[in-house]
Design goal:
By secondary structure, the chain is mainly α. Helix content is 74%, strand content 8%. The protein has helices at 3-46, 50-61, 68-74, 79-91, 113-134, 139-156; strands at residues 65-67, 95-99, 107-111. It has a three-stranded antiparallel sheet. Helix 3 crosses helix 4. The two termini are 40 Å apart.
Length: 157
């Protein structure tokens, strides 16, 4: 192979990769747009904002209780932002603040019974959306998709 042929081949591969990345970017945008639209519509229907739902999901993943500082860290929000979200969730009766008996400076956020019910409603809707989104995929394709998405997540960290 001549040098010119190698350069042309490499150039063609770079062009193909650029085209594939451009198509992937467009697919991600469409997926995110549709996901945000569906999630926003559902959150509005049940009376929560997405940040409030994220706090609820996070609490659900930690047995329904976490300190305010841990909650802010786990949801990647400032303490002030997390406090505002928890205030609104408290007003809605979905969470409550509980002081640590041993150290009154420590404040826990705990899901209430109404919050547990709301969280179950959110989880059922998420499951339904995931099933709808993947109904055209067989089990092998689902496994492959999950594997590829996990690789992308790792590369983002």
């Amino acid at each position: 192979m001549k040098t010119d042929d190698v350069v042309a081949s490499m150039s063609g591969e770079a062009t193909r990769r650029a085209e594939l990345l451009q198509r992937l970017s467009a697919t991600f945008r469409a997926l995110m747009w549709q996901g945000n639209k569906q999630t926003g519509d559902f959150m509005e229907h049940i009376g929560l904002t997405l940040p409030q739902a994220v706090v609820m999901w996070t609490l659900g993943a930690y047995d329904g209780i976490a300190t305010m500082s841990d909650l802010a860290q786990m949801t990647h929000q400032s303490g002030a932002t997390a406090t505002g979200i928890v205030d609104r969730l408290t007003d809605a009766g979905l969470v409550e603040r509980v002081r640590d008996k041993g150290d009154r400076r420590v404040v826990y956020v705990q899901i209430t019974e109404a919050g547990t019910t709301k969280l179950e409603e959110i989880e059922a809707q998420r499951q339904k959306q995931t099933e709808q989104m993947t109904e055209g995929l067989n089990d092998d394709e689902l496994e492959q998709l999950n594997s590829l998405l996990r690789k992308l997540i790792v590369s983002l960290k």
